């Protein structure tokens, strides 16, 4: 696809090496990796990630999503995940264009579209689809505006709206519509997610969660799991453990201090749950960080 080939040239010009790079457009980020990475804990936000070249896999709950150049990943709510670049090289790096999704912009667009059938069930927050020529061309034009700041200020909003419109018209349109529904079930699940993120180091409290979401415990549990592929308690644990792993890998914190920082009073419980999620005890990862700190910093930057 010619548009993706030209888009890869722009991304290469704007990414001096491996990492995630801000741009002059507030919701647009460019991601590059010159080599495959280790699996790294991360936290996905609502976004569309257009893979230009290379390949990556993302583990959410017990479901693995793999996507490659010419495909894109949409994420409808914030979810803890494990990301890994699986195909990249210095000659042909992994390249990705990420556009975070603004609920207000989506809502404004939806007002002009035909209303979907009511009562649609919530779907898993992640989905992989093929990039078509129209979407690739719109992404190319937005990225090309980065070299023309005056044009970006005027044309950027129009091209972003076009990209969102194309996403809404695609297979994942129903999922993205739910982001902008002011009092819909996805919005209530999002409130619960926000509470968990703000309080992950505190003990899990279902009563506080249902109050934040304005839902019954049974309804919240069912809808939360449909979207995030995890129960609220599992989500809370993953937030804690992923944050602890970040502290170990990015700050070199020892295992005991990392566990305490995220709310674990029992070192043995922390080690047990950490090993269950990541396959090895935290003390091993602390030792790996000492040996490979630069490599893990790159992996974290593109996860």
Architecture blueprint of SSEs:
Layout: H1 2-14, E1 19-22, E2 28-33, E3 40-44, E4 47-53, E5 55-60, E6 63-68, E7 71-75, E8 79-87, E9 94-100, H2 103-110, E10 126-130, H3 133-144, H4 149-169, H5 173-179, H6 185-198, H7 206-213, H8 217-228, H9 232-251, H10 255-261, H11 267-278, H12 282-302
Antiparallel strand pairs: 1-2, 2-9, 3-8, 4-7, 4-9, 5-6, 5-8, 7-10
Helix pairs in contact: 1-3, 2-4, 3-4, 6-7, 6-8, 6-9, 9-10, 9-12
Pfam families: AraC_N, HTH_18
InterPro entries: Homeodomain-like_sf, HTH_AraC, Tscrpt_reg_HTH_AraC_N
Domain HTH araC/xylS-type: 190-288
Ends apart, CA distance between termini:
26 Å
Order of helices and strands: HEEEEEEEEEHEHHHHHHHHHH
How many strand units?
Answer: 10
For this structure, what is the CATH homologous superfamily of the largest domain? Jelly Rolls
User: What is the share of helical residues?
Assistant: 40-55%
Work out the helix count. Answer: 12
Q: Please identify, by name, the CATH architecture of the largest domain.
A: Sandwich
CATH class of the largest domain: Mainly Beta
What keywords describe this structure?
303 residues; Jelly Rolls; 2 domains; four-stranded antiparallel β-sheet; 20% strand
Task: Write a short abstract of this structure.
The chain is α+β, with helices and mostly antiparallel strands.
What does this structure look like?
With 303 residues, the chain is an alpha+beta fold. The chain folds into two domains: 2-179, Jelly Rolls, CATH 2.60.120.10; 183-303, Orthogonal Bundle (Arc Repressor Mutant, subunit A), CATH 1.10.10.60. 51% of the residues lie in helices and 20% in strands. The protein has twelve helices and ten strands. It has helices at residues 2-14, 103-110, 133-144, 149-169, 173-179, 185-198, 206-213, 217-228, 232-251, 255-261, 267-278, 282-302, and strands spanning 19-22, 28-33, 40-44, 47-53, 55-60, 63-68, 71-75, 79-87, 94-100, 126-130. Helix 3 (133-144) packs antiparallel against helix 4, helix 6 crosses helix 8 (217-228) and helix 9 (232-251) packs across helix 12. Pfam families: AraC_N (PF06719), HTH_18 (PF12833).
